[in-house]
Amino acid sequence: MQNLIERAAQAIRRSRKTIALTGAGISAESGIPTFRDPGGLWDRYDPEEYATIQAFRSDPAKGWPMMKDFTELKTAKPNPGHHGLAQLEQMGMLHCIITQNVDNLHQAAGNRDVIEFHGNMRQVVCMSCRKLLPLDEISLDTLPPYCSCKGVFKPAGVFFGEPIPVDAMYRSQEAAQSCDLILVIGTSTVVYPAADIPRISKDLEKKPKYNSVNLCHIKRYGGRREVLSYSPKESGAQVIEINPEKTDLTQRISDFIIQEKAGVAIPQIVAAIKAMAS
Ligand code: APR
Predict the structure, then answer these.
(1) Which end of the chain is more exposed for a tag (fewer CB within 10 A), N or C?
(2) What does the alpha-carbon distance between residue 223 and residue 146 come to, in Å, rounded to a whole number?
């Protein structure tokens, strides 16, 4: 393991532009359950019933209890994995984080450039007037909560079937196309278009597989068949995974995987970088 930690540290030191793509796994050690691991959120709630925009539109009162139940989101604190990425940014060795997480923990750890690819569940948005408010500023005593314009409030995270925020989409593609190293941390890489970002980074042509007018914007689960047939040329960005489990990327796109918890591996990488610099 130490050898892979040093390889990752060396790669970051030599990199012209390193970015990170993070998923629920980096927040697991902060007590927030992931989605697809045993005992994860989708074990408790069927995403088709609770996490699609169609389901929320047809019955907002049904979608909200899941949010209310997700109490960990309100109390969780950043862990050594989050703090390690904040240190890399402060050391000038991490350009930005593209996160699928909706828990605000990268920002709480001190990272300044965080692209919230799936929005932020610590905020709510009115489905009529689009007013955005911190979750703490509304009462969840009666569900669904209503805006002063009489519109229904929705958690400001991106539900399946909803478009990815335009700014997040373009900034992520720009970062993926211009980086020479991407750290892929704590994600199962099964939800698109987020799961496409490592492949865009790796790909010599650096072209997104989909142009910006079709499905690419819509958050969806699966549909990998098409992507599997694609074999990127080898001289794009280096892709390093940090995840206790292998993922769909491991055999196809990643240069190597550090099969360790993020809260353990990232501080070790930071320490190795500092040791190399001294
Ligand atoms: N450190 C690093 N990785 C971990 C850790 C840990 N401590 N614990 C678990 N993991 C890994 C798991 O092995 C798994 O590969 O994190 C991954 C979590 O996968 P998912 O639960 O599928 O979460 P994620 O990939 O972020 O989901 C993507 O799906 O449900 C939607 O919108 C939701 O943003 C989410 C998207």
Answers:
(1) C
(2) 35
